[in-house]
Amino acid sequence: MSKTLIIGASGQIGKMTTELLLQHEHNVIALVRNKNKLSDLNSVHLTIIEQDLESDFSDVVKDCEQVIFVAGSGGGTGADKTLLIDLWAATKAINFSKEHGVKHFIMVSSLGADDPDAIQSDLKPYLVAKHMADRYLINSGLSYTIVRPGALTNEAASMLISTTRPSDRSNAKISRENVAHVLFNIAQNQCNSSCIFELFDGDSPIKAAVK
């Protein structure tokens, strides 16, 4: 049975996505920095691997058909960790995926990663890292989906989204749980074509909005 590798499975979106896949009996390999953060998950379909993304994690990718990269350096870190995790670790994950014949790579990027110069804020180093990681994936030859969520909230999943950027920037947001359901939908349907889309709370069912 196919395996899905989730890189950053102990983060909020990563853990929600892991839980959704396990509920549907998908085989999941969860790559985390601290396995204790997944101690409440118990499934015969789950393998947890604790490893630093700054090291060589190529063996973890072996025999996986899909990779979901949802790791991030976190808001409390500096530009050094943004470079090492959001860019360099993502680049390594793409290389390892090519090496091991991964069929589809799902990248969780960010709104604004298409044009970091358009947003003047403290987030610019993060957006530059996401931009370069996205470009590397696009040019890798892998089949990919790049998801660029708006500002993340902790609201419960509405299961209704939009892939069209709102005219009012204050509405350019989406719940983490909605993002997780979108990632699950992509993984569940095992896409074999490449696409990029932005993601916001909206009024369209996920299956209809993400084809």
Q: Which consecutive residue ranges, at least 5 long each, have pLDDT under 50? A: none
Rg calc: 16 Å
Please write the CATH class name.
Alpha Beta
Instruction: Supply the number of helical segments.
Output: 6
> What name goes with the CATH superfamily?
NAD(P)-binding Rossmann-like Domain
One letter per element, helices H and strands E, the order comes to: EHEEHEHEHEEEEHEEH
Overall strand count: 11
Provide mean pLDDT, rounded.
93
As laid out across the biggest beta sheet, the strand order is 3-2-1-4-5-6-10-8-11
Provide the CATH topology. Answer: Rossmann fold
Instruction: Note the gap between the termini.
Output: 24 Å
Helix proportion of residues, in percent? 25-40%
Count of domains = 1
Identify the overall geometry.
globular
The biggest beta sheet reads: 9 strands, mixed
Strand content: 15-25%
Structural class by sheet pairing and helices: alpha/beta
Query: Which architecture does the CATH hierarchy give at level 2?
Result: 3-Layer(aba) Sandwich
Pfam family, one: NAD_binding_10
InterPro entries: NAD(P)-bd_dom, NAD(P)-bd_dom_sf
Organism: Pseudoalteromonas nigrifaciens
Domain NAD(P)-binding: 8-189
